[in-house]
Write a sequence for this structure.
């Protein structure tokens, strides 16, 4: 279903910044994990959470120059495709973390779940704050109002000459030298991290994750980034 954008012309950038903060700032589709903090100033005029401790971010990317639709988006009826925005007592605010460029989306044109292809020009990131039932929501919020900068996607599940895969619950790679491996849930939450080095023909690293499910493994080696989706 195509998602039509709403214009929040009644909200100035100063009010928006006071209510909702994205870090790092500025950020792009290639910034890795970003954190969304909502309501730390006590201002909830973007969306009234009604004391609900569990909210969600419904997100999308505009890539074709048409600001009226989201070309890669979450599925409104599937909460598992969306990012939890939950009350954090320490921050005294609602907090969410996600990897905008490294997570899966439904492509609008084909209605296919996929990751963002390398080299995709992302003009804007959009998001909606909503409750779990979908009975209340904010207007459509534009990432460029909160520090998002248009950029080409540099991460991909395909390409790059190095071998990188997950086989029998173990990471297998022939990448040489210093290596960083991170594993994310489909919601963009980092669940595993390893910094290591490899000077053999093949490196095999057993995985021990807390839950069964579908994950995204990302390897960084010199100037190369490669990701694979796998089932654990």
């Amino acid at each position: 279903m195509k998602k039509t954008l709403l214009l929040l012309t009644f909200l100035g950038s100063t009010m928006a910044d006071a209510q909702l903060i994205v870090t790092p700032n500025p950020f792009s589709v290639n910034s890795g994990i970003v954190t969304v903090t909502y309501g730390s100033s006590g201002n909830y005029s973007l969306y009234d959470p009604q004391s609900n401790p569990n909210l969600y971010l419904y997100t999308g990317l505009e890539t074709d120059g048409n600001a009226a639709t989201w070309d890669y988006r979450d599925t409104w009826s599937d909460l598992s495709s969306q990012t939890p925005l939950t009350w954090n007592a320490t921050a005294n605010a609602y907090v969410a973390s996600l990897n905008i460029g490294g997570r899966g989306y439904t492509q609008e044109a084909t209605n296919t779940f996929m990751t963002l292809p390398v080299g995709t020009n992302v003009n804007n990131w959009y998001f909606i704050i909503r409750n779990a039932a979908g009975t209340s929501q904010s207007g459509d919020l534009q990432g460029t109002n909160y520090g998002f900068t248009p950029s080409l996607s540099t991460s991909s599940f395909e390409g790059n000459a190095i071998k990188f895969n997950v086989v029998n619950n173990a990471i297998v790679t022939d990448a040489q030298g210093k290596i960083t491996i991170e594993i994310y849930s489909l919601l963009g939450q980092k669940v595993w991290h390893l910094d290591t080095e490899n000077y053999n023909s093949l490196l095999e690293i057993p995985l021990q994750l807390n839950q069964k499910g579908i994950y995204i493994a990302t390897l960084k080696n010199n100037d190369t980034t490669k990701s694979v989706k796998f089932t654990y």
In short: The domain at 13-152 is CATH 2.60.40 (Immunoglobulin-like). The chain has two domains: 13-152, 164-231.
